[in-house]
Amino acid sequence: MIKYVLKQNKNKKSLAYLKWYAFPLVEETMDLAELAKHMEEHNTGFTEAMCLGMMTAMVKCIKEQLLAGKNVKIDNLAIFSVGIRNKEGAKTEAEFTAVNNIAGVKLRARATGTLSNANLNTSASVRRASNVFVASSGSGSGSNVAGGNTTTGDNSQTGGSSSSEGNTDSGDGLE
């Protein structure tokens, strides 16, 4: 069950100004050690320490391969790749320099296989979180969010503060 909270778009420059959008409520972030313990409890045949060791090595190897210019696909999870954050475009190819025109790199992940957006939409159910204290975006203050136990079949992607209404996603992206 994915719980959500509602937030109002306060960006006056947005076409979606003052409209309300759902955002996922993340109740916990698991680290590798907690995930390893969870995997052991699912009778994987491996101990918690073995699972943690394999996942730690996997993370190190994924980083190594990304820095070598390769993409890494983990079936039914994601394709990891590196993106470039540009500062400003150069007027000519000859004027382009990494120092002046590249701000940095970023990690990108695209869902794949059974974890794709289409499959998540058919598997997920959502429910408004009730009696949860949530920090509202942009204002720095919190608000008490009340809601019911309604499950919805609406799988449309909604959210945030993009400049065009109806083309916004809520959630935490890696891009």
UniProtKB/TrEMBL annotation:
Q: Which InterPro entries match?
A: HU-HIG, IHF-like_DNA-bd_dom_sf
The record's Pfam families line, in alphabetical order, gives:
HU-HIG
Is DNA-binding there in the keyword field?
yes
Which positions fall inside the HU domain?
2-111
Q: Where is the composition biased (Low complexity)?
A: 137-153
From which residue to which does any coiled coil extend? none
Output the Gene Ontology terms for molecular function.
DNA binding
Which SUPFAM superfamilies does the protein's record reference?
IHF-like DNA-binding proteins
Start-end of Polar residues biased regions: 154-175
Region annotation (Disordered) maps to: 137-175
Arranged from A to Z, the UniProt key words for this protein are: DNA-binding
Keyword Nucleus listed? The answer is no
Put simply, this protein is called DNA-binding protein
Q: Which organism is it from?
A: Segatella copri
Per the UniProt record, the lineage of the source organism begins with: Bacteria, Pseudomonadati, Bacteroidota, Bacteroidia, Bacteroidales
